[in-house]
Amino acid sequence: MKQLRDQVEAGRLALAILDTLPEPFLVLDETLHVLAASRCFYEVYGEDPSDSHSRSFFELSAGQWDIPGLRQLLSAVLPERSGLEGFEFEGNFGKLGKRTIQLNALPLRDDRARSQMVLVTIKNVTERREAEQEKQQLFEHTEELLEQQRTLLREMRHRIANSLQIIASILLLKAGSVTSEETRKELRAAHQRVMSVAAVQGHLQASDGIEQIELGPYLTKLAEGLASSMVGPKQNIDIKVLSDAGTLPTSHAVSIGLIVTELIMNAVKYAFPRHCKSARIRVTFEKAEADWKLTVADNGAGRRDSQEPSPSMGLGTALIGALAKQLGAIVSEISTNKGLTVEITRATFVSRLPHAA
Protein backbone atom coordinates (compact mmCIF):
# COMPACT_ATOMS: atom_id res chain seq x y z
CA MET A 1 0.00 0.00 0.00
CA LYS A 2 2.81 2.37 0.91
CA GLN A 3 4.60 1.57 -2.36
CA LEU A 4 1.45 2.47 -4.30
CA ARG A 5 1.12 5.78 -2.45
CA ASP A 6 4.79 6.54 -3.16
CA GLN A 7 4.26 5.87 -6.86
CA VAL A 8 1.21 8.14 -6.92
CA GLU A 9 3.11 10.90 -5.16
CA ALA A 10 6.03 10.50 -7.54
CA GLY A 11 3.65 10.75 -10.47
CA ARG A 12 2.07 13.92 -9.11
CA LEU A 13 5.52 15.42 -8.51
CA ALA A 14 6.55 14.57 -12.05
CA LEU A 15 3.43 16.23 -13.45
CA ALA A 16 4.01 19.31 -11.27
CA ILE A 17 7.56 19.58 -12.58
CA LEU A 18 6.29 19.09 -16.14
CA ASP A 19 3.87 22.01 -15.69
CA THR A 20 6.71 24.38 -14.76
CA LEU A 21 8.66 23.78 -17.97
CA PRO A 22 8.55 26.74 -20.42
CA GLU A 23 8.16 24.56 -23.53
CA PRO A 24 5.40 22.19 -24.62
CA PHE A 25 5.90 18.59 -23.45
CA LEU A 26 3.75 15.48 -23.68
CA VAL A 27 3.98 12.03 -22.18
CA LEU A 28 2.45 9.30 -24.36
CA ASP A 29 1.73 5.66 -23.51
CA GLU A 30 2.82 2.69 -25.61
CA THR A 31 -0.14 3.26 -27.94
CA LEU A 32 0.84 6.93 -28.34
CA HIS A 33 -2.16 8.22 -26.37
CA VAL A 34 -1.76 11.20 -24.06
CA LEU A 35 -0.95 10.37 -20.46
CA ALA A 36 0.06 13.90 -19.47
CA ALA A 37 1.05 17.21 -20.99
CA SER A 38 2.61 20.40 -19.72
CA ARG A 39 0.49 23.47 -19.07
CA CYS A 40 2.50 25.23 -21.78
CA PHE A 41 1.31 22.68 -24.37
CA TYR A 42 -2.33 23.25 -23.51
CA GLU A 43 -1.96 27.05 -23.53
CA VAL A 44 0.03 27.28 -26.76
CA TYR A 45 -1.95 24.81 -28.83
CA GLY A 46 -5.36 25.62 -27.34
CA GLU A 47 -6.19 22.12 -26.09
CA ASP A 48 -8.54 21.29 -23.21
CA PRO A 49 -6.67 19.15 -20.62
CA SER A 50 -9.81 17.14 -19.73
CA ASP A 51 -10.56 16.47 -23.39
CA SER A 52 -6.95 15.71 -24.39
CA HIS A 53 -6.23 13.07 -21.76
CA SER A 54 -6.23 9.51 -23.16
CA ARG A 55 -6.72 10.75 -26.71
CA SER A 56 -4.38 9.73 -29.49
CA PHE A 57 -1.60 12.25 -30.01
CA PHE A 58 -2.43 12.28 -33.73
CA GLU A 59 -6.00 13.47 -33.06
CA LEU A 60 -4.88 16.67 -31.32
CA SER A 61 -4.81 20.08 -33.03
CA ALA A 62 -7.38 18.95 -35.59
CA GLY A 63 -5.05 16.23 -36.85
CA GLN A 64 -2.06 18.48 -37.61
CA TRP A 65 0.26 15.96 -35.91
CA ASP A 66 -1.05 13.09 -38.00
CA ILE A 67 1.78 12.86 -40.51
CA PRO A 68 2.62 9.40 -41.91
CA GLY A 69 6.33 9.85 -41.43
CA LEU A 70 5.95 11.14 -37.87
CA ARG A 71 3.50 8.35 -36.97
CA GLN A 72 5.96 5.73 -38.18
CA LEU A 73 8.92 7.25 -36.33
CA LEU A 74 7.06 7.67 -33.02
CA SER A 75 5.73 4.12 -33.24
CA ALA A 76 9.33 2.87 -33.44
CA VAL A 77 10.60 4.76 -30.36
CA LEU A 78 9.48 2.15 -27.78
CA PRO A 79 10.15 -1.09 -29.72
CA GLU A 80 13.60 0.05 -30.83
CA ARG A 81 14.33 1.99 -27.61
CA SER A 82 15.74 4.83 -29.67
CA GLY A 83 15.05 8.53 -29.69
CA LEU A 84 13.64 10.75 -32.40
CA GLU A 85 15.57 13.95 -33.05
CA GLY A 86 14.82 17.04 -35.08
CA PHE A 87 11.70 16.00 -37.00
CA GLU A 88 10.43 19.18 -38.68
CA PHE A 89 7.20 19.92 -40.46
CA GLU A 90 4.86 22.80 -41.21
CA GLY A 91 1.32 22.79 -39.85
CA ASN A 92 -1.64 25.16 -39.47
CA PHE A 93 -2.49 25.37 -35.77
CA GLY A 94 -5.69 27.38 -35.49
CA LYS A 95 -5.09 30.79 -33.93
CA LEU A 96 -1.34 30.26 -34.08
CA GLY A 97 -1.51 30.06 -37.84
CA LYS A 98 1.10 28.39 -39.98
CA ARG A 99 4.09 27.25 -37.91
CA THR A 100 7.27 25.28 -38.42
CA ILE A 101 7.54 22.68 -35.67
CA GLN A 102 10.54 20.67 -34.52
CA LEU A 103 9.68 17.53 -32.58
CA ASN A 104 11.91 15.26 -30.45
CA ALA A 105 10.98 12.09 -28.58
CA LEU A 106 12.63 9.80 -26.00
CA PRO A 107 11.54 6.47 -24.47
CA LEU A 108 10.86 6.57 -20.71
CA ARG A 109 11.68 3.53 -18.51
CA ASP A 110 10.03 2.49 -15.29
CA ASP A 111 11.89 0.99 -12.34
CA ARG A 112 11.77 -2.45 -13.99
CA ALA A 113 13.68 -1.04 -17.02
CA ARG A 114 10.76 -1.50 -19.37
CA SER A 115 10.04 1.29 -21.82
CA GLN A 116 6.35 2.06 -21.50
CA MET A 117 6.09 5.79 -22.21
CA VAL A 118 7.31 8.30 -24.73
CA LEU A 119 8.37 11.83 -23.80
CA VAL A 120 7.67 14.25 -26.64
CA THR A 121 9.15 17.77 -26.75
CA ILE A 122 7.88 20.39 -29.16
CA LYS A 123 9.69 23.49 -30.37
CA ASN A 124 8.32 26.29 -32.49
CA VAL A 125 11.21 27.10 -34.86
CA THR A 126 9.20 29.32 -37.21
CA GLU A 127 11.09 32.54 -36.48
CA ARG A 128 14.45 30.79 -36.69
CA ARG A 129 13.65 29.26 -40.06
CA GLU A 130 12.22 32.54 -41.37
CA ALA A 131 15.42 34.31 -40.26
CA GLU A 132 17.51 31.63 -41.98
CA GLN A 133 15.41 31.98 -45.12
CA GLU A 134 15.80 35.77 -45.08
CA LYS A 135 19.53 35.34 -44.55
CA GLN A 136 19.72 32.94 -47.48
CA GLN A 137 17.72 35.30 -49.68
CA LEU A 138 19.99 38.18 -48.65
CA PHE A 139 23.04 36.04 -49.40
CA GLU A 140 21.67 35.13 -52.83
CA HIS A 141 20.83 38.78 -53.52
CA THR A 142 24.33 39.82 -52.44
CA GLU A 143 25.85 37.16 -54.68
CA GLU A 144 23.73 38.43 -57.56
CA LEU A 145 24.92 42.00 -56.95
CA LEU A 146 28.54 40.83 -56.69
CA GLU A 147 28.22 38.95 -59.96
CA GLN A 148 26.80 42.08 -61.60
CA GLN A 149 29.74 44.03 -60.17
CA ARG A 150 32.21 41.44 -61.46
CA THR A 151 30.60 41.63 -64.90
CA LEU A 152 30.84 45.42 -64.91
CA LEU A 153 34.47 45.27 -63.78
CA ARG A 154 35.32 42.78 -66.53
CA GLU A 155 33.62 45.02 -69.07
CA MET A 156 35.44 48.08 -67.69
CA ARG A 157 38.82 46.32 -67.78
CA HIS A 158 38.15 45.23 -71.35
CA ARG A 159 37.30 48.79 -72.42
CA ILE A 160 40.29 50.24 -70.55
CA ALA A 161 42.60 47.72 -72.22
CA ASN A 162 41.24 48.63 -75.65
CA SER A 163 41.55 52.35 -74.92
CA LEU A 164 45.15 51.95 -73.75
CA GLN A 165 46.04 50.01 -76.88
CA ILE A 166 44.52 52.75 -79.02
CA ILE A 167 46.43 55.47 -77.13
CA ALA A 168 49.68 53.49 -77.39
CA SER A 169 49.19 53.00 -81.13
CA ILE A 170 48.51 56.72 -81.66
CA LEU A 171 51.67 57.65 -79.72
CA LEU A 172 53.73 55.20 -81.76
CA LEU A 173 52.32 56.52 -85.04
CA LYS A 174 53.05 60.08 -83.95
CA ALA A 175 56.58 59.11 -83.00
CA GLY A 176 57.15 57.82 -86.52
CA SER A 177 55.77 60.94 -88.20
CA VAL A 178 57.51 63.77 -86.31
CA THR A 179 60.79 65.21 -87.53
CA SER A 180 62.25 66.20 -84.16
CA GLU A 181 64.34 63.42 -82.65
CA GLU A 182 63.74 64.78 -79.15
CA THR A 183 59.97 64.77 -79.66
CA ARG A 184 60.19 61.27 -81.10
CA LYS A 185 61.98 60.06 -77.96
CA GLU A 186 59.39 61.66 -75.70
CA LEU A 187 56.52 60.09 -77.63
CA ARG A 188 58.15 56.69 -77.47
CA ALA A 189 58.71 57.15 -73.74
CA ALA A 190 55.03 58.02 -73.32
CA HIS A 191 54.16 54.94 -75.37
CA GLN A 192 56.14 52.73 -72.99
CA ARG A 193 54.42 54.26 -69.97
CA VAL A 194 51.01 53.52 -71.46
CA MET A 195 52.10 49.97 -72.27
CA SER A 196 53.18 49.53 -68.65
CA VAL A 197 49.65 50.28 -67.44
CA ALA A 198 48.21 48.10 -70.23
CA ALA A 199 50.36 45.22 -68.99
CA VAL A 200 48.71 45.45 -65.58
CA GLN A 201 45.26 45.40 -67.17
CA GLY A 202 46.20 42.40 -69.26
CA HIS A 203 47.49 40.55 -66.23
CA LEU A 204 44.32 41.35 -64.29
CA GLN A 205 42.15 40.11 -67.12
CA ALA A 206 44.13 36.86 -67.32
CA SER A 207 44.06 36.20 -63.56
CA ASP A 208 40.57 37.65 -62.97
CA GLY A 209 41.97 39.50 -59.97
CA ILE A 210 40.66 42.91 -58.93
CA GLU A 211 42.10 43.61 -55.49
CA GLN A 212 45.43 41.79 -55.19
CA ILE A 213 47.99 40.89 -57.84
CA GLU A 214 50.93 38.49 -57.74
CA LEU A 215 53.83 40.81 -58.41
CA GLY A 216 56.42 38.33 -59.69
CA PRO A 217 54.53 37.19 -62.81
CA TYR A 218 53.37 40.76 -63.47
CA LEU A 219 56.90 42.24 -63.35
CA THR A 220 58.21 39.37 -65.49
CA LYS A 221 55.57 40.02 -68.13
CA LEU A 222 56.25 43.74 -67.98
CA ALA A 223 60.02 43.29 -68.37
CA GLU A 224 59.53 40.93 -71.30
CA GLY A 225 57.29 43.47 -73.02
CA LEU A 226 59.81 46.28 -72.50
CA ALA A 227 62.68 44.10 -73.73
CA SER A 228 60.84 43.16 -76.91
CA SER A 229 59.78 46.73 -77.70
CA MET A 230 62.84 48.75 -76.58
CA VAL A 231 65.94 46.59 -76.94
CA GLY A 232 67.18 46.59 -80.51
CA PRO A 233 68.83 43.56 -82.12
CA LYS A 234 72.25 45.23 -81.92
CA GLN A 235 71.99 46.16 -78.24
CA ASN A 236 71.76 42.60 -76.81
CA ILE A 237 70.65 43.63 -73.29
CA ASP A 238 69.54 40.80 -70.99
CA ILE A 239 66.60 41.85 -68.77
CA LYS A 240 65.47 39.48 -66.02
CA VAL A 241 63.22 39.61 -62.95
CA LEU A 242 63.78 37.89 -59.59
CA SER A 243 60.87 38.15 -57.18
CA ASP A 244 59.65 36.73 -53.88
CA ALA A 245 56.20 35.19 -53.82
CA GLY A 246 53.49 37.53 -52.61
CA THR A 247 50.73 39.87 -53.63
CA LEU A 248 50.15 43.59 -53.40
CA PRO A 249 47.04 45.73 -53.90
CA THR A 250 46.47 46.39 -57.57
CA SER A 251 46.94 50.15 -57.14
CA HIS A 252 50.39 49.50 -55.62
CA ALA A 253 51.25 47.08 -58.43
CA VAL A 254 50.39 49.74 -61.03
CA SER A 255 52.68 52.27 -59.35
CA ILE A 256 55.53 49.76 -59.02
CA GLY A 257 55.04 48.78 -62.66
CA LEU A 258 55.39 52.41 -63.74
CA ILE A 259 58.53 52.79 -61.62
CA VAL A 260 60.06 49.65 -63.16
CA THR A 261 59.13 50.90 -66.63
CA GLU A 262 60.91 54.22 -66.04
CA LEU A 263 64.03 52.59 -64.61
CA ILE A 264 64.31 49.98 -67.36
CA MET A 265 63.73 52.64 -70.02
CA ASN A 266 66.47 54.84 -68.56
CA ALA A 267 68.85 51.89 -68.26
CA VAL A 268 68.28 50.84 -71.87
CA LYS A 269 68.75 54.43 -73.11
CA TYR A 270 71.67 55.63 -70.99
CA ALA A 271 73.45 52.77 -69.19
CA PHE A 272 75.20 51.39 -72.24
CA PRO A 273 76.53 54.26 -74.40
CA ARG A 274 78.88 51.77 -76.05
CA HIS A 275 78.12 48.23 -77.17
CA CYS A 276 78.50 45.69 -74.37
CA LYS A 277 78.35 41.95 -75.00
CA SER A 278 77.25 41.13 -71.43
CA ALA A 279 74.85 44.06 -70.85
CA ARG A 280 72.22 43.18 -68.31
CA ILE A 281 69.42 44.73 -66.25
CA ARG A 282 68.13 42.97 -63.16
CA VAL A 283 64.80 43.70 -61.45
CA THR A 284 64.54 42.29 -57.92
CA PHE A 285 61.50 42.41 -55.66
CA GLU A 286 61.74 41.28 -52.03
CA LYS A 287 58.76 41.14 -49.67
CA ALA A 288 58.41 40.56 -45.93
CA GLU A 289 54.85 40.99 -44.65
CA ALA A 290 53.93 44.67 -45.24
CA ASP A 291 57.50 45.68 -46.15
CA TRP A 292 59.09 45.34 -49.55
CA LYS A 293 62.11 46.41 -51.58
CA LEU A 294 62.36 46.94 -55.31
CA THR A 295 65.80 47.02 -56.92
CA VAL A 296 66.62 47.78 -60.55
CA ALA A 297 70.32 47.41 -61.31
CA ASP A 298 72.42 47.42 -64.47
CA ASN A 299 76.10 46.75 -65.19
CA GLY A 300 76.51 49.78 -67.41
CA ALA A 301 78.57 52.95 -67.18
CA GLY A 302 76.77 54.40 -64.16
CA ARG A 303 75.50 57.94 -63.84
CA ARG A 304 78.08 60.57 -64.70
CA ASP A 305 77.89 63.70 -62.55
CA SER A 306 79.03 65.85 -65.42
CA GLN A 307 76.33 64.55 -67.71
CA GLU A 308 73.42 66.94 -68.16
CA PRO A 309 70.16 65.05 -67.60
CA SER A 310 67.87 64.96 -70.58
CA PRO A 311 64.25 66.14 -70.29
CA SER A 312 63.20 62.48 -70.44
CA MET A 313 65.42 61.54 -67.51
CA GLY A 314 64.18 64.55 -65.55
CA LEU A 315 60.54 63.61 -66.11
CA GLY A 316 61.24 59.98 -65.27
CA THR A 317 63.06 60.88 -62.06
CA ALA A 318 60.21 63.14 -60.96
CA LEU A 319 57.65 60.44 -61.77
CA ILE A 320 59.59 57.81 -59.80
CA GLY A 321 59.85 60.15 -56.80
CA ALA A 322 56.14 60.97 -56.87
CA LEU A 323 55.10 57.32 -57.17
CA ALA A 324 57.46 56.24 -54.39
CA LYS A 325 55.99 58.93 -52.12
CA GLN A 326 52.47 57.64 -52.81
CA LEU A 327 53.64 54.14 -51.84
CA GLY A 328 55.25 55.36 -48.62
CA ALA A 329 58.66 54.29 -49.95
CA ILE A 330 62.05 55.98 -50.22
CA VAL A 331 64.36 56.04 -53.24
CA SER A 332 68.11 55.50 -52.97
CA GLU A 333 70.74 55.24 -55.67
CA ILE A 334 74.24 53.76 -55.92
CA SER A 335 76.27 54.66 -59.01
CA THR A 336 79.75 53.38 -59.86
CA ASN A 337 81.69 52.71 -63.03
CA LYS A 338 80.31 49.16 -62.80
CA GLY A 339 76.70 50.19 -63.06
CA LEU A 340 73.74 51.96 -61.49
CA THR A 341 71.53 50.48 -58.76
CA VAL A 342 68.25 52.14 -57.78
CA GLU A 343 66.40 50.89 -54.70
CA ILE A 344 62.83 51.74 -53.70
CA THR A 345 62.18 50.56 -50.14
CA ARG A 346 59.00 50.51 -48.12
CA ALA A 347 59.73 49.78 -44.45
CA THR A 348 57.02 49.98 -41.80
CA PHE A 349 59.14 48.89 -38.85
CA VAL A 350 58.90 51.18 -35.84
CA SER A 351 61.30 50.64 -32.93
CA ARG A 352 59.70 49.80 -29.59
CA LEU A 353 62.86 50.77 -27.67
CA PRO A 354 63.13 54.24 -26.11
CA HIS A 355 65.45 56.64 -27.88
CA ALA A 356 68.76 57.30 -26.14
CA ALA A 357 68.96 60.59 -24.28
Write structural notes for this entry.
The protein has 357 residues and is α+β, with helices and mostly antiparallel strands. It has helices at 2-20, 39-45, 49-52, 68-75, 77-80, 126-177, 181-207, 215-230, 250-271, 311-326; strands spanning 25-28, 34-37, 84-92, 98-109, 115-124, 212-214, 238-243, 247-249, 280-288, 291-298, 330-336, 339-346. The strands form three sheets. It has a five-stranded antiparallel β-sheet with strand order 2-1-5-4-3, with helices on both faces. It folds into three domains: 12-124, 2-Layer Sandwich (Beta-Lactamase), CATH 3.30.450; 126-210; 214-351, Heat Shock Protein 90, CATH 3.30.565.10.
SSE topology:
Layout: H1 2-20, E1 25-28, E2 34-37, H2 39-45, H3 49-52, H4 68-75, H5 77-80, E3 84-92, E4 98-109, E5 115-124, H6 126-177, H7 181-207, E6 212-214, H8 215-230, E7 238-243, E8 247-249, H9 250-271, E9 280-288, E10 291-298, H10 311-326, E11 330-336, E12 339-346
Parallel strand pairs: 7-9
Antiparallel strand pairs: 1-2, 1-5, 3-4, 4-5, 6-8, 9-10, 10-12, 11-12
What percentage of amino acids are in beta strands?
Answer: 15-25%
Unreliable runs, pLDDT <50, ≥5 residues? 1-8, 306-312
Rg over CA atoms, rounded to whole Å, is 40 Å
The helix count comes to: 10
Q: By CATH's scheme, which homologous superfamily of the largest domain applies?
A: Histidine kinase-like ATPase, C-terminal domain
Helix content: 40-55%
